[in-house]
Specification:
Blueprint: H1 14-22, E1 27-28, H2 30-47, E2 54-55, E3 65-66, E4 70-72, E5 78-84, E6 98-105, E7 112-116, E8 119-120, E9 122-123, H3 139-156, E10 162-168, H4 171-175, H5 180-183, E11 185-186, E12 188-189, E13 197-198, H6 203-219, E14 224-228, H7 231-241, E15 248-250, H8 255-264, E16 269-275, H9 276-283, H10 298-307, H11 312-319, H12 324-333, H13 338-354, E17 360-366, E18 372-375
Parallel strand pairs: 7-10, 8-12, 14-15, 14-16, 16-17
Antiparallel strand pairs: 1-13, 2-3, 4-5, 5-6, 6-10, 9-11, 17-18
Helix pairs in contact: 1-6, 2-3, 6-8, 9-13, 10-11, 11-12
Length: 379
């Protein structure tokens, strides 16, 4: 950085400027790697040749290229390609994992079918964004693979009807170091990612980047800033308030860092926006929202559900829910505004950390799709 406000590339704020300031190298999600492997395998099925490297387009327009670590085209109706995941500077347990996609041709009209190969888990309990029995390939990676299959089909004369089996070498062993077994995802890892990019987190570097982001916003005269847990919540804030880029803080899991710095360097208004589960941790008093350092307290959510109007049987179901998302859905199905209660409690916790600093706070909870499921000041 050349000064206290502006980066050498001219970026003045927002997530890109924060990442640049950390000096950490981003990487690629398992979903991006699976998409690259799928694209290469399907291309080989239609042309007889594997593209290497293979280039894909991510949801935000980036076009990374991936070298193939393995490939196989021994039959006329299926092909396999594999990509080694590079997580950049993030301490990701899946870094260097070999992610394979085997693509098999299906009859016209069959569509795209996903299967879990060795090392990829299967959903066995409710409360996740996938139905029980489905391979643990999350919705955004599925859509990314579908779109690339369609592009390859259009380019090379295919129908786009394929079965995609994703596997991860040693995935079952790696998954033992994740929360998958507790969530009922059995047999291996999940294929994840909403942007395709792994944003690396070094606690000290990222907290420093948050402080720089606040400094940039204040220097630009911004009176309203937003701390977002990720790209989905950032889109929600932009739709709600149309804030400029330099008013957006990528707080990630470091809600406490945002609040403590703004306590010392106030702005008129702070919006906190994030996933329901993460903000339920803030509501319960946790300032570090990382899954390794704080967990969703379903007993606490049951207490909030009672406050929001749930009866005792519903509260008991919330207390034994598999995930925060399942707890939310249980309450939504009964018209109990648990999301609003979590947002209000999270705002109360934020105000307690601000210790009387002249900052107006509002909180927005979203689900994985970015739908608003709770507000501290509901309309």
């Amino acid at each position: 950085m050349t000064d206290g406000v502006t980066g050498t590339d001219g970026a003045t704020g927002g997530r890109a400027a924060q990442l640049k300031h950390t000096g950490l190298r981003p990487g690629w999600t398992t979903g991006a790697c699976a998409t690259a492997a799928t694209t290469a395998a399907y291309t080989a099925l239609l042309t007889g040749e594997f593209p290497d490297p293979v280039t894909i387009t991510l949801p935000k327009g980036q076009t990374p290229s991936f070298a193939l670590a393995t490939e196989d085209l021994t039959t006329g109706d299926r092909a396999m390609a594999g990509v080694v995941k590079d997580a950049g500077d993030d301490p990701d347990v899946t870094h260097a994992a070999l992610i394979r996609a085997t693509v098999r041709l299906l009859p016209p009209g069959a569509g795209v079918v996903f299967r879990a190969g060795p090392g990829v888990g299967t959903v066995t309990r409710p409360g996740l964004p996938l139905d029980v029995g489905e391979p643990a390939i999350n919705p955004v990676p599925r859509q990314l693979m579908r779109s690339h299959v369609a592009e390859v089909a259009a380019r090379h004369g295919g129908t786009g009807d394929v079965e995609i089996t994703v596997s991860v070498d040693n995935g079952a062993e790696i998954a033992r170091h994740t929360w998958n077994p507790r969530l009922g995802i059995l047999g291996g890892l999940s294929i994840l990612g909403t942007t395709g990019v792994v944003v690396p987190y070094s606690c000290s570097a990222w907290i420093d980047s948050i402080r720089r982001g606040v400094d940039v916003a204040r220097a630009a005269g911004r009176t309203h800033v937003a701390g977002c847990t990720g790209s989905t919540s950032e889109r929600t804030v932009l739709a709600a308030y149309d804030l400029p880029e330099d008013a957006l803080l990528d707080m990630g899991d470091f809600a406490g860092a945002v609040l403590k710095y703004i306590r010392r360097h106030p702005v008129d208004r702070l919006t906190l926006c994030g996933g329901f589960a993460k903000l339920s941790k803030l509501a319960a008093g946790h300032l570090d929202l990382h899954s390794a350092r704080s967990q969703v307290d379903k007993t606490f959510l049951a207490q909030l559900a009672l406050t929001a109007g749930a009866d005792a049987p519903l509260a008991e179901r919330v207390a034994t829910a598999n995930t925060g998302l399942e707890a939310l859905r249980l309450c939504q199905s009964r018209g109990v505004p648990l999301g609003n209660e979590v947002a209000r409690r999270a705002r109360d916790e934020a105000l307690s950390v601000l210790r009387g600093a002249p900052v107006e706070v509002d909180v927005i909870c979203v689900d994985r799709a970015g739908t608003v499921v709770g507000r501290s000041d509901p309309a």
